[in-house]
Amino acid sequence: MTERSPLLSQGERGRPVVLVSAVLRGALAAGLGLGSLAVLVAALWISSPAPDSGPGEAFHTAAALWLLAHGAELVRTETLTGAPAPMGVVPLLLSVLPVWLVHRAARDVLEPDEGRGAPSPGAAFALVTGGYLLVGGAVALYVRGASLSARPLSLLLPGALVVAGAAASGVWTAHGRPLGPPPSWAPVRLHEAMARTRFLRRADAVGRAALAGTAVLLGGGALVVASALVWHGAPVQESFLRLSGDWGGRIAVLLLALGLVPNAAVWGAAYGLGPGFALGTASTVTPLAFTGHPAVPDFPLLAAMPAHGPGTPLNWAAGAVPVAAALTVAWFTVRRAVPAEGEGEEAWGPGETALTTALGAFGCGLGAALPAAAAGGPLGTHALADFGPVWWLTGAAALAWTTVIGVPAGLLLRAWRLRGRKKEDVEEGTPAHPVSTAKPPAPAVPEPPAPAKNAKNAKNAKNAKEENGAKGEDEGESQEEGDDEDDLDAYDFLPTDPWHARETERETDRETDASPGPPAASA
After folding, report:
1. Residue pair 163/136 in contact by the 8 Å Cβ criterion
2. What distance in Å separates the CA atoms of residue 343 and residue 335, rounded to the nearest whole number?
């Protein structure tokens, strides 16, 4: 008997249709993305008044752009010099549809159909990715030898890596985005830490702070670009009208500019962080200065560059973007470090707050470096071989800004949110909401009565005690049967007469017994 593959779950054993369905879903996702782009390119080709090529060339262009959307680097063979020229700037908006299709295909495969099971997570990832890459390999062979072809190595890295990452995110989403256990080779302390709820809360805070800081950083970069386009409105309009004289060409330029809007946002974020971006191998644009001789092609987005030379205070104002990102990281961290009153969670200490803010800053730096690596690339050879931000400089600058500003801001925000609370509430490990520390009042011990002056007073006190006890018993019998016995006085067994009163009573009794009787009356 042959052994089953460990990738297959119990519900899929003996059901090859489930496996075939997973492969087909991956291939269908690739076909939908390719078909959508082919329809768009064909429509632009048809609307062109005098196309220079036939429909075959248009479909080759659509296939090459589809590969470019996955991060593959294209090579143009038809150049003015005749030498092949690379084209590696990926329109990031063009990558949204393929990545989303792979993500959804992997997620939907794990939803079992009626009457059929679902593959295991590992099988779903492998089958969907394999089906998608089969179509990608066929497309790469189709464009081979055309005027736009793909470099073979770029098809694997980052092309195949992008597909695998999108499929993995789909499988993770289908399982509720869990933070699973670490690998078996990881240290035991890491396994123990991840098993605690406290670790999960800290990891969630780091992730939220990093995502929020990255979003503010990229959003601020988009705001910088929008401001530059408005400020340089006339040159942008002239460049747009100069590129094409017919509506078909202008629509193509507009669609290309829209596809590069996310790239421009990343460039704007890198500009605000300080490292800026390159406009060729001999020119750099930063808030401090625009240096070198740029090799700028005629394009509307590039017409919004600042003036050549040293920067002005208006350029320096772009530094507000990383400051806002750092404050966002601090705010999202402190929201979890010091919960609102009454939520029942514990307030973090200063060290833990600072460490979590620093980890969120590291995540923000990583979130800035990855888009920077995808937003740039070569547009040709020689002077056009380098366009866009340097990813490691952008990530390091984002990490530095958010750490230097975010950590102190986080500690100040923590102190501000703890204002007005009791001292016991701000210590590490104590609840953030006020807790009553008052002790219950101790039961009052009945004071003994004053000492009796003579035996008569002592006997009167004893009789009064017996009468009070009898009266208490009578009252106790009249109470309901469900009364709790804890309501009784816990000190009823104590004597009410002090020891010196009891000693006086004994001496009086002895004197009375020893004294002779009264004398008899005389006759």
Report:
1. yes
2. 12
Joined tokens for residue 129: 């990715």
Peptide bond into 182 cis (omega under 30): no
**Contact criterion met (CB below 8 Å) for 321 and 220:** yes
Q: How far apart, in Å, do the first and last CA atoms of the chain sit?
A: 137
The answer to whether 279 touches 387, Cβ cutoff 8 Å, is: yes
**415 vs 293, 327, 349, 360, 435, CA distance in Å?**
50, 15, 10, 19, 19
C-alpha angle with apex 212: 359 to 311, nearest 5 degrees? 95
Residue with tokens 């789909």: 170
pTM of the model: 0.75
Condensed to tens digits (0 to 9), the pLDDT of residues 91-119 reads: 999 999 999 999 999 999 988 765 567 78
The one-letter amino acid at 370: L
**Nearest by Cα to 328 from 360, 351, 350, 356:** 360
Residue 262 structure tokens: 């996310």
H or E element at residue 387: strand 387-388
Q: With beta carbons less than 8 A apart as the criterion, state whether 370 and 391 touch.
A: yes
HSE toward the beta carbon, residue 370, CA cutoff 13 A: 9
Are the CB atoms for 172 and 107 separated by under 8 Å?
A: no
CA geometry: angle 44, 46, 50, nearest 5 deg: 100
